[in-house]
Every structure is written in C-alpha cells, then in structure tokens.
Sequence to fold (228 residues):
Amino acid sequence: MSIGSPRVHFRAVDSTNERARLLAAAGAPHGTLVTAAEQLAGRGRQGRRWSSPAGRALLCSLLLREPPRLLPLMAGLAVAETVGDGALVKWPNDVLVHGRKVAGILVEGRPREQWAVLGIGVNVAVSIEELPEEVRAQAGTLGLPAHAIEGWLTDLVKRLACWLQASEDEVLEAVRLRDALREQPVRWTGGSGIGAGIDGDGRLVVATSDGRVALESGEVHLVSGAGG
Fold:
C-alpha cells in the first residue's frame, strides 16, 4: 500500500503527530501524511519538546494502519539512507552523523485499533545556533538549503515505503550495519555496559559486568562523545 497521500500541510501547527492522531481517529486512510513548516508544540521522546526554527527542518507524521513490529527501526533506516553513507542509527530511534543527532523519530498509536503515527523530524537546513542552548552540544544538521526540504521528503517517503515492505531479517541486518551503539559504552536508567548489537526481536543487547541484557525500550545514552 502506498504512503504519502493524501497530504495535509500546515504553515504552523501544534504538532504534526497530534494532527495525524486526530486524522487517524476520524478514519483517515493508511499512508496519510501530515507536514508543517513550523511546530509550536512538537514532541520528542520521554516527554521532551522537539524544537526547530520555522522553515528549516523536515517535520512530518505518517498514519500507518496495521503497522509492522519493527516500525521505529524501519524509519531509522529510511532516514539514515536518505542522509547518506555516514549516517548511523542510534537505537531505538535517532539518526546520528559524526556523533550528532540530525533526526528524531517518535511512534505513537493505539495498538488495539491497529494504527500508529510515525513522526519524523530532520534538521535539514537548521543552523545549530538557532536551536535551544541545551541541545546544541548534541544536535547536528545536514547543512542543506531550505528549498531542499521538499525533495528530501519525497526521497524519504520512497525509502520508507521500501522498508515497510522488507522482511524483518532484512531490516535487522541493515540496522546492524548502521548500529551507532555497537562496541560503544552506553548507559541507561538501571545500568551501563557496552553495546553488543541488535537481537532478532529488534532489542538492544548490552554486555554488562553481570552478563548480557536485552533492552526492549527506553532511553540509551552514549557514555562518551556527543549524540546521547
């Protein structure tokens, strides 16, 4: 099934994810795309705000009915491929370039109703100095002109459509090749260790002093360097 159409675009909106959720509840079809030039209350993971200057970032949300189990990883791959060879996927849902976060992914939905909203924010043309001071040390940008955002979106939707059709084995193999945490020191609420890959269920495996653990969700930080 195709994605990216119908499309609803806002000059400014509270949150593309929020608008997509409302459309989902109202019966909008699979593949509906919501985009905006500016978000006034954009959301990130763990309740954080996603900030970006108007007209400088790709801000979009896709409504997906009967979403696949590995949707966050599929989205991360699609974004990383669109960025280019140097982009890595930081489990579970960030994309890094040179250790800096250039994109974030937020999946929200209602499993019982079998739909999810996939929110993607990419710093396509953002100047780091325009971002809130508290995120500048970790944030990255693609450094493209603002007029490149629309073409970038088109490419991203095409790549995402391909990954949504891929097998789980293909997804996991590709994620492992772009794993930003592999053999890196990491920490999370409740522990720390060394990234040891992605298992068959899409979980992050970490080698700790007490053995290996598999994380199903949560916030994971690189201990050293930017990108946490």
Helices lie at 16-25, 71-83, 149-164, 168-177. The two ends are 35 Å apart (CA to CA). Residues 149-164 form the longest helix (16 residues). Residues 203 and 216 are 5 Å apart (CA to CA).
